[in-house]
Automatic annotation (TrEMBL):
<dbReference type="InterPro" id="IPR016936">
    <property type="entry name" value="UCP029693"/>
</dbReference>
<keyword id="KW-0812">Transmembrane</keyword>
<protein>
    <recommendedName>
        <fullName>DUF2333 family protein</fullName>
    </recommendedName>
</protein>
<dbReference type="Pfam" id="PF10095">
    <property type="entry name" value="DUF2333"/>
</dbReference>
<feature type="transmembrane region" description="Helical">
    <location>
        <begin position="18"/>
        <end position="37"/>
    </location>
</feature>
<keyword id="KW-1133">Transmembrane helix</keyword>
<keyword id="KW-0472">Membrane</keyword>
Length: 339
């Protein structure tokens, strides 16, 4: 018996095969782009970069220039690193990635905190002084939602924030003492470090909770008259979900990457203040501790071993470096606040 094969069958097979090839090629392309985009920017020299960005005719880095220029460079890196800004992507490969968006959020938090410190403290001589107009606008621009891709996109708001920082930077070096100022004082630096201290403390706690542990309730410790809205048990188990621990890890990587550069810039701009308190070595040690957090990751994934178990626990290693740096920041802030 002869079987008659419809003439359209070979065409259908060719069509399915072609579609499979196209989908396979697209999959390979997306995976390649994910690998390419999932690369953290390297470290740079804040003082060298600040000198390179001085306007023509200016040869001296005035107080505050290095700090603001570094903040601007860190914010600019969010938008122009390899792959661009990924946190608000709705198309492949960015929509499938979570490590780099969490890294970006860690950097963004530090950008927001220092911009607010510039607005409230570093650019003002006293509480009753007038806010700097550029910093007054830059602060809310960087606090815009970090995941908006349309009406108005996150990138456009952050570009406006960078532009406002640039405006403040230009006025710092224009020679007009009434146009813009940066006050390198011990109290201003201590106030910003207090915020950094809280950020690092939170990251350290979340990283350390990767193995789960019982924690005593110390929320009201030290103040017998203190109260809180809702009562909490005296002991509670604190644990970061296995599904979230790599998110916290990369957020910490981003935050510490930004802090390394910002602290190096502060080390330059506040050199006389630090020397007067003999605090230069303390800040240098903080930077060295944070630099350890940027070591290369040789494992293909973030391991979450239990304490002294067989497998490594990258979160605990990161928490160790952050805790050491945070303890040193607490000591440094205490030193700056002494008369």
């Amino acid at each position: 018996m002869n079987v008659v094969i419809p003439k359209s069958a070979p065409r259908r097979r060719v069509g399915w095969r072609l579609a499979a090839y196209v989908l396979g090629a697209l999959l390979v392309l997306v995976l390649a782009l994910m690998w390419w985009f999932d690369s953290e920017p390297g470290l740079f020299d804040p003082v060298k970069e600040a000198r390179a960005g001085l306007p023509a005719g200016n040869t001296r880095l005035v107080e505050g220039y290095t700090t603001v220029a570094t903040l601007k460079r860190v914010a600019d890196t969010l938008l122009h690193k390899r792959g661009g800004y990924l946190s608000n992507d709705v198309m492949p490969p960015g929509v499938f990635m979570d490590n780099m968006p969490n890294w970006e959020f860690g950097v963004l938090v530090q950008v927001r905190d220092l911009t607010r410190a510039l607005r409230n403290d570093f650019s003002r001589s006293q509480t009753q002084s007038v806010e700097d107009p550029d910093l007054q606008e830059a602060d809310p621009l960087f606090h815009y939602a970090n995941d908006r891709w349309i009406f108005v996109s996150t990138e456009s708001r952050y570009r406006q924030g960078i532009s406002r920082l640039d405006g403040y930077l230009e006025r710092l070096v224009d020679g007009d003492p009434y146009n813009a100022q940066f006050y390198a004082r011990a109290d201003n630096l201590a106030d910003w470090l207090a915020v950094v201290e809280k950020r690092l403390g939170s990251l350290s706690q979340r990283l350390s909770a990767s193995v789960g542990r019982v924690q005593a309730d110390v929320d009201l410790a030290g103040d017998p008259a203190a109260t809180q809205t809702k009562p909490t048990p005296p002991l509670r188990e604190v644990r970061t979900s296995w599904w979230q621990i790599d998110d916290v890890f990369y957020e910490a990587r981003g935050a510490t990457w930004a802090l390394i550069h910002l602290l190096k810039a502060v080390e330059h701009d506040f050199a006389s203040v630090l020397a007067n308190k003999n605090a230069g070595p303390s800040l240098a040690q903080i930077i060295r501790e944070l630099e350890q957090t940027q070591a290369a990751i040789w494992s293909p994934m973030i391991l979450n071993g239990r304490g002294f178990g067989f497998f490594a626990n990258h979160s605990l290693v990161m928490a160790n470096f952050i805790s050491r740096a945070n303890a040193a920041i607490i000591d440094l802030r205490d030193l700056l606040q002494r008369g």
